[in-house]
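Appendix B. Chain record.
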Amino acid sequence: MRDNDEEGAGVEPYRWGYRGSDGVMALSGDTDANAAPRPEPLRILSLTGGGRSGSTILGNVLGQASGLFHAGEVCYLWNRGVQQDALCGCGRQFSECPVWQEVMATTGMDVDAAALERLIRFPRAGNRRLPLLMLSRRLARRAADAAEEYAAHLGVTYAAISAATGAEMIIDSSKTPSHIDALSRMPNLDLRVVHLLRDPRAVAHSWHRRLARDDVGADRPREMDRAGIARGALKWGFSNAFIEAAVRALPRDRVLRIHYEEFARHPAQVAHRVLAFAGVPDAALPFASENEIDLRATHTVWGNPNRLKTGATRLRADDAWRTEMSLGHRAVVTGITLPWLLHYGYRPTSSAGGAESRNASA
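Structure tokens predicted for this chain:
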């Protein structure tokens, strides 16, 4: 596999298409989009969960292993990458990153403005439809058609990433349940899913805080998305519930539950457990100690702004909610999430913000 920070010498720049009348960029390519299918299944490690659960840093840690490529939140490739030209994890604009240029050229996809808009809308629109799908067969059929189109483009993209980087396994830290549902529909895929959980009080507090980000495209908001305390709690609960529903069809040995708090306490130990689950137990990671790692640049297309961090890094829990979150806000989140809180092994009265070890994995 090529190094994650390779310069990509000799890569022909991807020839970007035009902007349609609706302002959406169209893609074009010269290679055959109907190339013969890969003889072996694509190996995908999905790191999913509610937002603000630590999937980006876990993905960057795992992506240091030889043969693994952390692509970031691939569900936002067409929005944050193609349309907005945000920064790649390597620090370059998406359109200037030689790795993503080669990936996009390798796809050979000819995606018009309307199709690109559907690819951009699907992750969020699919999530909003999920509750209705349980009540309407007609809606379920329509959603399945949209998921099939999305999955087809996703499959071509994964194959192009593998071909362009030489990766034996692609790490996708997308967290939208509709994206995971589409993954489960893809043929010729060796899929392993890590369901990452974090205390909902920490998650809701993170959504409520003003957090700067420096990895967006020009003329874009310089803050991470925000949500009120109650909405942040609901997002956490519904996201995790729908993710559980989306992975229900997978064999039990293809799903691993990990708590953010355990990863923050023992990052090296948990990272190696995930590698073993992914089928690469002997992969080496550059940990200097249990909590310190030397991070090389990755090529994450989107995720938490900490994806840009490189060099010697000490991993620790973000426990700001313990001291910054009011008792009233804690009570609101605990009340809203109580059934899920207990289901995932968190104590309603916990002041430490840590998950109980009895449910650390499943």
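Further analysis of this model is presented in Appendix C.
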